[in-house]
Design brief:
Blueprint: E1 6-10, H1 16-25, E2 31-35, H2 47-62, E3 68-71, H3 74-87, E4 92-93, H4 96-106, E5 111-116, H5 118-123, H6 125-133, E6 138-143, H7 147-152, H8 159-175, E7 179-183, H9 191-198, E8 203-205, H10 207-221, E9 235-238, H11 242-252, E10 261-262
Parallel strand pairs: 1-2, 1-3, 2-9, 3-4, 5-6, 5-7, 7-8, 9-10
């Protein structure tokens, strides 16, 4: 199974930040990426719906004989990871634990902020991880539901995006957080704007980078790491608007996306 690809999925384009980090940190590996662009965003949907969507995507990725799966979506990691781990016989990795662990190590004043979708924030999963790792930490969460559609529209540096960021993040600035977890894989694409609003003294934690490092460790521990580079053969699939996805992917990935396939994800059982 060393030669098999790694499955990566997200509700849309945000998970490409995780795919980018995997490509950078594990250059020998190939990726099969699925973006559920027909049903984005996930952040406002119920747990049962997210679990069903995630099962369908895992069923699809298993048809590609992937050797491990990365849930490149904080909402799905928060609401579906535990279920998928119980149902799958290959490694399943979420993005929440690696980001929380780094934030716990990074903070100096023990004031940690979390921004994410409504579902991720309401799940309390980041707070739970942080309290287990650092019981004395003060954790402040803020849902930023408009960030995802802004990223999907590629309005990364628009004045509207800056104004919305100022309104969302003002509360966390008032709390005096010195560390901020970008608790949605879309958010690293707004890193410049978020850093500008929060100030240079606040450390931003990108769970995408930390997740790639964890994946590397898991593959090595389970003897699944691809040992040599045999050329890139990454595959990309979406549930809607393949052309728009391909343009966006080519703007942020270190490789060229020549083709994006369409998948009728509803045909998979879930």
């Amino acid at each position: 199974m060393r030669e098999n690809a790694i499955g990566v999925f997200d509700s849309g384009v945000g998970g490409l930040t995780v795919a980018r980090e995997i490509m950078n940190q594990l250059p020998n590996e190939n990726i099969v990426y699925f973006g559920d662009t027909a049903r984005v965003p996930y952040g406002s949907k119920s747990k049962d719906t997210i679990v069903t969507f995630s099962r369908q995507i895992v069923d699809f990725l298993r048809t590609k004989n992937v050797k491990a799966i990365v849930i490149a979506c904080n909402t799905a990691s928060a609401l579906a990871l535990e279920t998928l781990e119980q149902e799958c016989d290959i490694p399943i990795i979420g993005v929440i634990e690696p980001g929380a662990r780094t934030a716990a190590k990074t903070t100096v004043n023990n004031k940690i902020g979390i921004i994410g979708t409504v579902a991720t924030v309401n799940s309390g999963i980041y707070t739970q991880y942080l309290r287990n790792m650092k019981p004395d930490a003060l954790v402040y969460s803020k849902a930023c539901p408009l960030f995802c559609p802004l990223v999907e529209e590629n309005w990364l540096y628009d004045s509207v995006t800056i104004e919305i960021a100022e309104r969302y993040l003002g509360e966390l600035k008032d709390y005096g957080v010195d560390t901020l977890i970008l608790g949605c894989t879309h958010y690293p694409l707004l890193r410049h704007t978020i850093q500008k609003v929060m100030g240079d003294e606040v450390q931003l934690v990108n769970p995408a980078y930390e997740t790639a490092l964890k994946l590397k460790n898991v593959l090595e521990e389970k003897n699944l790491a691809k040992l040599t580079w045999t050329g890139n053969d990454h595959k990309f699939y979406v549930s809607d608007d393949a052309d728009k996805f391909k343009v966006f992917a080519n703007s942020i990935l270190p490789c060229e996306v020549l083709e994006t396939g369409y998948v009728n994800i509803e045909q998979y059982n879930g």
